[in-house]
Amino acid sequence: MAALPTGIPMAREPLVTSILAPNASAYTHTGTQSYLVGTADLAVIDPGPDQPEHLDALLAAIAGRPVVAILVTHHHRDHSPASRPLAELTGAPIVGAAPFHASGEDGRIDAAFDADYAPDRVLAEGDVVAGQGWTLAVLATPGHTSNHLAFALAEIGALFSGDHVMGWATSVVSPPDGDMGAYMASLEKLLAREDRVYYPGHGEPVDNPRRLVRGMLGHRKQREGQILRLLREDARGAAGLVERMYVGIDPRLRGAAERSVLAHLIDLERRGLVAGKGTAWRIAA
Fold first, then answer.
1. Domain identity same for 105 and 139
2. Which residues, at least 6 apart from 78, have a Cβ–Cβ distance to it below 8 Å?
């Protein structure tokens, strides 16, 4: 994991500044990238975790300029919690992804989600947030989460891709909120676009985004093919498939791999290609 400076504003181009949060981990890479868009007035995209040092860094970079909106791609706890103190300090509305509330069996995924996230306005496909010299158009990109959004900055052909597309790793798709079919459809949607650069929620900018998205689609289809080949040999569960598919995986990432394999199995079941549950998934008769 590269040693990048946290809390230091990095001017990516005239309308885009990034500030890296100090929350590096196996799942967040070097930390969450928060972005300021604009010059005279600003949008803040994914303000990140509610850490005093990161909030101070955001305020220093804002430098007293008006904040039009605080935008949230999705409300995982590494993306949205700082929206609340930042809104109190700037007076800006919190807008973006719809709130999510897990219940029943879904409660086991609560740990990843910001249960207190409460946007002032939920954004949907085609909505626009604008300021002086900048326009952010909303794209619905579900898959990593059901409420995931991306924001396209028309003036420079940039896309803030959140956790949907990142250069350093593929996105975790964890059912029941994560959906592999939706994730693949969202990748196809982005592949049809002409964005020049992606600014992801973690990692460095992606300078050839269509090539990366094409590769990610191919990677997921390859994983799907592996699953089908292994199930033709014998019935297995997600854990058994991971054992064969991810040789030498970092133990910290094994759980995420199992969730993504489960997402593939659920998608294949919907398409009538596999059947089963638990540890006994098999090729459909």
1. yes
2. 21, 23, 27, 28, 32, 48, 49, 201
